[in-house]
Write a structure and sequence with these properties.
single chain; alpha/beta; 4-stranded mixed sheet; 10 helices; 19% strand
Amino acid sequence: METEKILQDFKEGKITLEEAADFFKMEPYTDLGYAKIDNHRKIRQGYSEIIFCQGKNNEHLLEIFGKIYQNEGAVMGTRATKEQAELIISRYPMAKYDEVSGVICIDKEKELIGKICILTAGTADISVAEEAAKTAEFLGNRVERIYDVGVCGIHRLLSNMDRMEGARCIVAVAGMEGALASVIAGLVDIPVIAVPTSVGYGANFKGLSALLTMINSCANGVAVVNIDNGYGAGYMAATINRMGVYSE
């Protein structure tokens, strides 16, 4: 539950002083021993904690997932395996798992704000793009997906330029040599978040070639996240989009 709602409910007499105090007692984090759940993150940053599922012990993951859901009414995890998802859903049947992105979440209805465009160079980049898209949507943003518009068929990108109108930022996801981000940045007047992927042949070096291309881009307005880091790109895009909406 949000801090503002607790205070408003107390002011209106909907909850007692003791009930309000119980909420604040759990701040700023819940100590599970093996994990410290950051209950203050939404207050500090505007978004609650999101779980990185990869490598987590099953029981640890279940309890962390449950605690965040209990506190926030919604919860999201990234890099979840199919086995982890099945385990979570067995306890929380309302959870939804997207096998393409590896995202599992229990969401609540919300009005999606603004517009973020997420583009991929090829269909092999879609899993990373979907991690970005699912993240941005969970955080309350409207997402436009434009997939398979890489530079080896530049007409595909140019014929979709109208779909980018009104966006506050663009996420460009590409493997191989990673040229897509530079091309897009040369055509638009909004920030471009470049996501190198590990898609490519040997000299791609598991995404290193795309990463270096994007870092060395001569186009203005390009920022780069780590290899295959769709979550990081989606979160940054959500932050930019939110600033644009609330500044209007």
